[in-house]
Amino acid sequence: MAVAKTGPAAAARKPRVDTPVVEFKDVTKVYDGGSVAVQSASMRIGRGEFVFLVGPTGCGKSTFIRLMMKEFEASRGEVSIAGHPLADVPRSRVPYLRRNIGVVFQDYKLLPNRTVYDNVAYSLQVIGESRKEIRRKVPDILRLVGLSTKLHNFPTELSGGEQQRVSVARAFVNHPPLLLADEPTGNLDPETSIGIMQLIYRINRTGTTVVVATHDKEMVDKMRRRVIELREGRIVRDELSGLYRPEESTTEFAVRLRGELGIGAEGHPN
Amino acid sequence: MRWSFFLRESMRGLRRSSAPALAALLTVVLTAVVLGVFIPIQQATTGTANEVRSRVVVDVYVKDAATPVERSELRKAIEDTTNVKSVEYISKADALADAKKKNPEAFRAGAELLGSNPLPSSFRVTPDDPDRLQQIVTRLTAGGQPQLAAIDEVRDREEDTAKILSATGLVKALTFGLAILLVFASIALIANTIRLSVFARRREVEVMKLVGATNWFIRWPFVIEGMVVGFLGGLVAVLLLAILKTTFVDPLAERFALLAAPDTIDFPLLVVVLMLASIAVSALGSGITLRRFLRV
Hints:
The complex is a heterodimer of chains A (270) and B (296). By secondary structure, chain A is an alpha/beta fold. In chain A, 34% of the residues lie in helices and 22% in strands. By secondary structure, chain B is α+β, with helices and mostly antiparallel strands. Chain B has helices at residues 2-16, 18-53, 68-80, 92-102, 104-108, 133-141, 158-199, 202-210, 215-255, 257-260, 267-294, and strands at 58-62, 84-90, 122-127, 151-155.
């Protein structure tokens, strides 16, 4: 994606620190039905950052992710990836943009009739990687995510956590500079979720910028990374090392929730 | 690398979703067989209709008093008339022989009753286009030219002509309409079957888009699949048609010359046309149907 300037001076120069990997300038997205998903949101995500997008269901997290992939255009404002406004990327170039963005979804989106190996190899075949390179890279990345023994299993033969690992491997096998994850732990139990988050964090440590949309409060609180909170399409909070809901401890949260649900303070349902 | 990859992908697609592929194949076979039977029938019908139409003629009766010079001048004048294809001279003797042949009963004992031959000599005029017949009649009866003075009467057998023209016209229009309808029905049927098989794999297409596959990269395996299905379907249809031809049509054609009479399409040509059409329709069908799923 980043267009290399010619000349030795440009090549030698380090990438400018002030070019954000993702930048939203007063972005608004209105869907065709008229519902407003994102309202005048502005933010910058720098190189190598680990960012949580949090907020209740329907607050616009997924829309943020999809705007970054140019699945659709912003209605107003400007979304830029690595300094390139997405509005200027023609339709025919969108596939090349996506090769520089790894994506992980809640429902894994694996191809059901291909083995683990073939699912990961597919994203290399798509960009025209040679067979030799594929044979070298795919086992490597599958070892990294801890699936080297399940190369020839089909996705239906794996647990949810393992399927998500395959999906992470597929997203990262090209070593894209940006990794987007939309509710990566949404379907997983807490223990498995930690494993997936650990994996994503390890990817972040290699220098990849990571954006995770989630409502997994515990995870956000534990990791203490940058948190961008959305509510009804607006950015209401942006903290460098935040909690899911900083003003409230987990006990307070439980008390509040019990109160809202009309259960007594000590009343355990079982 | 790329083309072998596409080939492997399309083979994988055919294996994995063999049920929809089989449905598409069957559709191609059926429509190709129906078309393969209908094309020769349509041509035979049109050929027969045209043959009947070519019998539409104008008779120009010549005055008995006309001299041979006047007759040849008249013949030349008729031949020069617009829309006339050919002119045939029928002398008094020819006309009598013809009449005797058509109605031997009346002439068995009657030839002596008539002292002389009462039939006039005539020119039989064949038009280049049966629908222009009336114009020829008008041009010949309008008179004015001295060469046409030898004409006694111009007869176009009005009733017969009108019947032949309207009946054959209707037959031609009907078969042509049916052919068009059948072609459209075939394309719609094949396209819909292919749409089903592509729809079954829309998730796959979605994932391909996500990992950054270009539209053509996604489309090629589907197009190749369509071509394979079209080729196999066309092949089966052609084999069925060949069996039908050798077991039913050929023995009949030997016994009744009539069946072979109208010019129909050569079998090899029919085979080529059907094969190309099946492959093209299936390939285009898969390629175009995909378009809806590529807009992500």
